[in-house]
Amino acid sequence: MEHLENELKELIIERYGSLKKFADKVPIPWSTLDSLLKRGISNSNISNVIKICKELDISVDEIAKGRITSNDEYRNSEIFSSDIRAIARGAQNLTQEKRELLAKLVQSMSDSGDEELIK
Length: 119
Known about the structure:
The chain is an all-alpha fold. The protein has helices at 3-16, 19-25, 30-39, 46-56, 60-64, 71-79, 82-92, 96-112, 114-118. The protein has 2 domains: 3-71, lambda repressor-like DNA-binding domains (434 Repressor (Amino-terminal Domain), Orthogonal Bundle); 80-110.
């Protein structure tokens, strides 16, 4: 089993307790799931891969690239650049008052440009 398939197997067992329970939930035959994990994702029927990704709420696009990424994380990575995500993570640790001040500062910067803020 490759690294991706091992990660996928661990995720399934962590969330569902066993491969059998997960296969019943998807639904696909347990033997098909077992074969998919042994032969590899890239050698599998795409409809089964999509079913698995949908049930686990992970990105099919990322699985195709050899990564397991939640759909939320994938969508956020597509929408916001890494520096914007870093600012948002930092803002979560601020008090409500400081977040409001930060929002005003950002709005002021977008409205007037940097020149007025530097003065």
